[in-house]
Design goal:
205 residues, mainly alpha, Endonuclease Iii, domain 2, Endonuclease III, domain 1, 12 helices, elongated
């Protein structure tokens, strides 16, 4: 564990005893990072509103059909839509993935310069793509760009974990989440990972 992660865990335990208990129970921080590229963003579109197992099956079929690992915009666009439907992709997701592929090929979406942008600018850059909402962009920030202070207020797993851990009568609103998370800053991504794990839930990506 790097020095910065030790610092993050020390901060979170000291700032929030409830989260501290979760950190002790879950154990070492083991975030599974992904490459910040087209392949990863396509993966997150495939995973929207599907169970991990079903999504993985469809995603692996897409890689096999495209004959590209990692996926490239050109490889995706070579596949006919009817072929993509046969892999198990919905009409909507197929349109989103092809749209992202076209925008990436044409340079409207760029993965090479996002490292230098602030979180909000990155969310704005990716949400110009139909089918990439704030949640998907936030998952990219956490899991691919390794940003440490992202609070995914729309994530059902994080909301459910906060409800359970803090004994709330119902799922917290984004405003309530921001209030609780104020103590976690600048390590909201780390806190979110522990909250996902507290439910024994596989993380969003």
């Amino acid at each position: 564990m790097g020095v910065s992660m030790k610092k993050a865990l020390h901060h979170l335990k000291a700032a929030d005893p409830v989260l501290g208990t979760i950190i002790e129970r879950v154990g070492p921080y083991r975030m599974q990072y992904r490459d910040p590229n087209f392949h990863t963003l396509v993966r997150s579109i495939v995973y929207q509103q599907l169970s991990g197992k079903a999504a993985l099956t469809i995603f692996n079929r897409l890689i096999a059909a495209a004959k590209a690992d990692p996926l490239t915009p050109e490889a995706v666009l070579r596949l006919r839509p009817v072929r993509m439907r046969a892999l198990g992709l919905s009409q909507q997701k197929l349109a989103y993935i092809r749209g992202l592929a076209r925008m990436t090929r044409d340079g409207q979406v760029r993965f090479d310069h996002v490292h230098s942008l602030e979180d909000a600018a990155i969310i704005e850059h990716f949400t110009q793509v139909k089918g990439v909402g704030v949640w998907t962009a936030q998952m990219f920030l956490i899991f691919a760009l390794r940003r440490l202070d992202v609070l995914p207020t729309g994530d059902l797993g994080v909301r459910a974990a906060i409800k359970k851990a803090y004994n709330l009568p119902e799922l917290p609103s984004p405003a309530e989440m921001e209030k609780i998370a104020a103590a976690w800053r600048p390590y909201c991504s780390v806190a979110s990972w522990y909250l996902w794990r507290s439910l024994d839930n596989q993380g969003a990506m």
